[in-house]
Amino acid sequence: xxxxxxxxxxxxxxxxxxxxxxxxxxxxxxxxxxxxxxxxxxxxxxxxxxxxxxxxxxxxxxxxxxxxxxxxxxxxxxxxxxxxxxxxxxxxxxxxxxxxxxxxxxxxxxxxxxxxxxxxxxxx
Length: 124
What we know:
Elements: E1 4-14, H1 20-24, E2 27-36, H2 40-45, H3 54-66, H4 73-87, E3 92-99, E4 111-118
Helix pairs in contact: 3-4
């Protein structure tokens, strides 16, 4: 089983929704990130230079979420996974995006989507 970096419940803002009205103002979303990667070197050296920087991962997810309006949280999850796999040495990414306002009027705390994507062999 591969090692994993886990960054749960990242609060971000995204212009997301099926209607133009929803996309007009950024709304809160929660993003969970799981990156499959080998952490043995970082563990051995105890050096951030040999690790994936959690702050940089969070920053990249925020950049993707804020980059443009989205109709669907599925698109955000897909693009976050692709960006992280391109930028960081991970073999796979599992991204969950939750939108608290999606079904709030029906008493549902959130609606979400989870994607799992494999990276290229050159990156992880």
